[in-house]
Specification:
The protein is mainly alpha-helical and 199 residues long. It is built from 10 helices and no strands.
């Protein structure tokens, strides 16, 4: 077992115990590795950050199984190929998706449970967004779905950038609280990554 595998296995064990700082360390370790792979597979600019967020959401949601993973690198890349495949399928590029999955990874059947957990969480996030006040909801959706930066949202809604940022921070905390009340605990940085870190 090489040093990288030993280090990543240790991170996996810490994450399995709910350690958010270990999860954030894994996130920052892997984003530079997986981003170019995702870009190469989907061949479209823009959706990478959503796919990355989905991958790490999947890792966090299935964290209790991480102690069983022998080679974290392979396991993470299997998730990358699977998420890219799902994204391509949604875009109606089934043949391309099938070729990629056949070429890159032959076993993705064990991801069904993770898919169910991911779908349930995604639905709860949507419900949490609907609970936000109308203005906060509008700001959050402009950031999340239209991919607008804080300054662009401020300009469009004629608000100060600080007002927009404060609203996003409150919304993220509210979404996290809603998920926690539903029994799903997500690291705040993961929810915020796509919203605040690109602004």
């Amino acid at each position: 077992m090489n040093n990288d595998t030993v280090h990543e296995t240790a991170l996996f064990h810490q994450i399995a115990g709910g350690d958010e700082s270990a999860f954030e360390a894994l996130f920052h370790l892997y984003v530079p590795k997986i981003k170019p792979v995702i870009a190469r597979i989907i061949q479209v600019e823009g959706p990478e950050k959503d796919i990355i967020q989905e991958i790490f959401l999947g890792i966090w949601l299935s964290r209790e199984k991480l102690t069983e993973v022998m080679v974290p690198h392979n396991w993470i890349f299997k998730m990358v190929y699977h998420r890219c495949y799902s994204w391509l399928q949604k875009q109606g590029v089934r043949n391309k998706a099938s070729q990629i999955i056949t070429r890159e990874s032959t076993d993705h059947s064990n991801l069904t449970e993770e898919n169910i957990a991911f779908s349930e969480t995604a639905l709860l996030v949507k419900q949490a967004i609907l609970q936000l006040p109308p203005q906060a909801q509008k700001i959050y959706l402009l950031s999340r779905e239209k991919d607008l930066k804080i300054a662009e949202i401020a300009s469009e809604l004629q608000l100060s950038p600080q007002t927009v940022k404060n609203s996003l921070v409150r919304s993220l905390k509210s979404i996290r609280e809603y998920l926690t009340n539903q029994g799903i605990i997500l690291p705040l940085f993961l929810l915020a990554w796509g919203v605040l870190y690109f602004s």
